[in-house]
Design brief:
Layout: E1 2-13, H1 20-23, E2 29-47, E3 55-58, E4 62-65, H2 74-83, E5 90-97, H3 107-122, H4 129-143, H5 151-158, E6 161-166, E7 172-176, H6 181-190, E8 191-195, H7 202-211, H8 217-235, H9 242-256, H10 265-276, E9 281-284, E10 292-296, H11 302-308, E11 313-315, E12 325-329
Parallel strand pairs: 3-5
Antiparallel strand pairs: 1-2, 1-12, 2-5, 2-6, 3-4, 6-7, 8-10, 8-11, 9-10
Length: about 325
């Protein structure tokens, strides 16, 4: 049996510029993001032949089926079809997570990375973080044909607070953000995350945004430039970390301009309420349309913002550095 955990991520700046449709236009792409101390867990083992089914998959439902093609979970089905179709033995896959899926934290990619990590582990093949990231991209973009970029898979595999630069051929360069411990602590203590109460299908939102890339060149270039600015703010000890929060507000305004489906009146109302209560900026995480709302809030204003966001669940978070990790290894 193998148990793997992979972290969820918070993307601050650059989202959208990591998509192949943008990079293939010859444009540069980069994100500034961090993984957080909330995880997706995958337990995987070979299934003994004593059962009257060959595959058991436990996620939002329990599947017990004879063949791979009968599996309803798309990632499990396609991963097993591609990597394990010739094997005689069946598999059991059990999924758990600290936070809801489809909520803007890269949980789908964290699951894909975890599943691949667990499968390769059961084959006594411990893969590098780069190999896991690239295999996860292959699964999501090529096998599942999803409208996704590169950032989520890389973040889940590597972990940490990083700047990630992307190339059109799928190559990437990852560089940890250089920041003092005191400034890192100030940034962490100013981040507040609230669950809007509803999830969304990221692929549907992404398709609408990608379809308008040709008309949103200026906006996406501005989003890319914010990666540089965000990194400069944090690395310059002479600038207040609060500038980072204010830049988040500009990033959210730019993201909202990409497509109307990114936000909705309820989210806009809550965001504006948090700003009136003392938040300096924030953004809806992930593709948009629902999920988690991240706000940058000076510590003295936290109570007021929590009051303004009453009805939404506040989820404390810290940054993490480990990336995808094997918790139990007994192949």
């Amino acid at each position: 049996m193998i148990i793997v955990r992979s972290p969820l991520r918070v993307s601050f700046f650059g989202g959208g510029t990591d998509h192949p449709a943008w990079l293939n236009r010859g444009e540069p792409g980069a994100v500034l993001s961090t993984t957080i101390d909330k995880y997706v867990y995958v337990q995987m083992r070979r299934l003994p032949a004593v059962f009257d089914f060959n595959y058991r998959v436990a996620w939002g439902m329990l599947e017990e089926v004879q063949s791979i093609n009968e599996i309803q979970h798309p990632v499990v089905r396609e991963v097993l079809k591609h990597y394990a179709a010739e094997e005689e033995t069946g598999w059991e896959v059990i999924y758990n997570a600290d936070l809801p899926s489809k909520s803007g934290l890269g949980s789908s990619s964290a699951f894909t990375v975890s599943l691949l990590h667990a499968y390769f582990g059961n084959k006594e093949r411990l893969s590098s973080k780069q190999a896991l990231a690239k295999e996860a991209v292959f699964v999501e973009q090529q096998l599942l044909k999803e409208t996704v970029g590169y950032q989520d898979q890389i973040a889940a595999a590597h972990g940490g607070f990083n700047r990630i630069d992307f190339e059109a051929d799928g190559e990437y360069h990852i560089r940890p953000v250089q920041i003092s411990a005191s400034r890192r602590n100030e940034l962490e203590s100013s981040m507040m995350m609230f669950f809007t109460g509803f999830t969304r299908l990221a692929d549907e939102v992404e398709k609408k945004k990608v379809a308008k890339f040709g008309d949103r060149t200026a906006e996406l270039r501005s989003i890319y430039d914010m990666v540089d600015e965000g990194e400069r703010i944090l690395s310059d000890a002479g600038r207040p970390v609060s500038d980072f929060g204010e830049l988040l507000h500009h990033a959210w305004m730019a993201k909202r301009s990409l497509d109307a489906s990114v936000s909705n009146p309820m989210i806009d109302e809550r965001y504006e309420g948090a700003m009136r209560a003392g938040a300096l900026g924030g953004k809806l995480l992930g593709a948009g349309g629902g999920g988690f709302l991240l706000m940058y809030v000076p510590p003295a204003k936290r109570a007021a913002v929590i009051e303004a966001m009453k009805g939404m669940t506040y989820v404390p978070l810290r940054m993490e550095r480990g990336g995808s990790q094997v918790v139990l290894y007994n192949p």
